[in-house]
Amino acid sequence: QVQLVESGGGLVQAGGSLRLSCAVSGRSFVLNVMAWYRQAPGKQRELVASISSGGITNYADSVKGRFTISRDNGKNTVYLQMNSLEPEDTAIYYCGANLYNTGWSWYWGQGTQVTVSS
């Protein structure tokens, strides 16, 4: 069974930084795209950033220049470095991974709360 476990959320003041991590564990899987999504209260879940197995990245316009996604394929882990945080970044952040186990599917972490105070 594949699991995604996130860590690194918390409370930070505007202008501060946080680093999120998400480790994928399980047996016999192949990782493809990994991504971070977020959902703020009363809003739909939105893509924050994604990274392919080859390292190609994609960012939401709202986080370009402030957030950096990276991955360690040896550790099956994806990171999200968040700098210059704004109150509008407050949300639950979810890690997602497109991987092959019994077939290609998206798997999701449990979510980690990020709160940015003004």
Please specify the SSE layout and strand pairing.
Layout: E1 3-7, E2 10-13, E3 18-25, E4 30-39, E5 46-51, E6 57-59, E7 67-72, E8 77-82, E9 91-100, E10 104-108, E11 112-117
Parallel strand pairs: 2-11
Antiparallel strand pairs: 1-3, 3-8, 4-5, 4-9, 5-6, 7-8, 9-10, 9-11
Q: How would you explain this protein's 3D organization?
A:
This protein is an all-beta fold. 0% of the residues lie in helices and 58% in strands. The protein contains no helices and eleven strands. The strands form two sheets. Strands 2, 4, 5, 6, 9, 10 and 11 form a seven-stranded mixed beta sheet that branches. It has a four-stranded antiparallel beta sheet with strand order 1-3-8-7, with no helix packed on it. A hairpin with a 6-residue loop joins β4 (30-39) and β5.
Summary, kept brief:
With 118 residues, the chain is mainly β.
User: What Rg, in angstroms, do the CA atoms define?
Assistant: 14 Å
Number of strands: 11
Percentage of helical residues? under 10%
Order of helices and strands: EEEEEEEEEEE
